[in-house]
């Protein structure tokens, strides 16, 4: 199996933050390549005032050139950790740039903003990237974490989203010390309709050489709190789950597992939509 390729967003070039610290550790453990990316923002509001366009574009281009000059810092950082990878700089909408850059990666690593983004949960840059990127995304708490991926909790519900998250987590699951699966899939669909044949989880893990313990899970509401409590009781340092199984608008209005964990989870989340 070829070595995976990781992509980490670096909000401040020249500085190691919680997301980058974890990305370096994971890249070493997985023998993975690690690309860093910084995105020069180009506020759409600038184009609403014609007089501001020239100034905003000039500032964005200057910031981009300054970030490109950080390539030696990135090369030194990777060399120190025994890693290979590229320094990449983009310009424009953060979520859009990251989603496009993700095409060359197997996993995107983002640090959750310390302060809530100027958008409801489900419409900020982090969740927009999860929604648009065709790759799983590892969301790192702003407070940081000592490590992740050694003791993994998989929150499985049989959805397409959880299937994508599980498949995307295979490199990490393959080197994890312990994998525990909460099987919350239902045997019947809405109105008693049958689902498609369920994924045979024990065989799926066995075929990939991954040892996993599996328990049926029918949590009381709110489900997010029950998932987190189980992860903490098991001493897990990472949760793998599908994201936005319902529409973002529905989860914003009615609540949901994704919305709750994106907002409050103290553990890293490996998610896919």
Description:
The protein has 273 residues and is of the alpha/beta class. The protein has 2 domains: 5-140, Rossmann fold (3-Layer(aba) Sandwich), CATH 3.40.50; 151-272, Rossmann fold (3-Layer(aba) Sandwich), CATH 3.40.50.620. It contains 11 helices and 10 strands. It has helices at 18-30, 50-68, 71-80, 94-101, 125-132, 160-168, 170-175, 201-207, 223-233, 248-254, 257-264; strands at residues 5-9, 33-40, 87-91, 107-111, 137-140, 151-156, 178-183, 213-216, 238-242, 269-272. The protein has a 10-stranded mixed β-sheet, sandwiched between helices. Helix 4 runs parallel beside helix 5 (125-132) and helix 9 packs across helix 11. The longest helix is centred in the first third of the chain and has 19 residues, at 50-68. Residues 247-255 have low confidence and may be disordered.
CATH superfamily of the largest domain: HUPs
Strand line-up across the major sheet: 3-2-1-4-5-10-9-6-7-8
Q: Helix proportion of residues, in percent?
A: 25-40%
Mean pLDDT: 87
Provide the succession of SSEs.
Answer: EHEHHEHEHEEHHEHEHEHHE
Largest sheet: 10 strands, mixed
Shape: globular
Supply the number of structural domains: 2
Enumerate how many helices there are, as a single number: 11
Q: What structural class do helix, strand and pairing data support?
A: alpha/beta
Low-pLDDT residue intervals, each spanning 5 or more residues: 247-255
Number of beta-strand segments: 10
Instruction: From the alpha carbons, calculate the radius of gyration and give it in angstroms.
Output: 19 Å
Euclidean distance between termini CA atoms: 24 Å
Portion in strands: 15-25%
Provide the CATH architecture of the largest domain.
3-Layer(aba) Sandwich
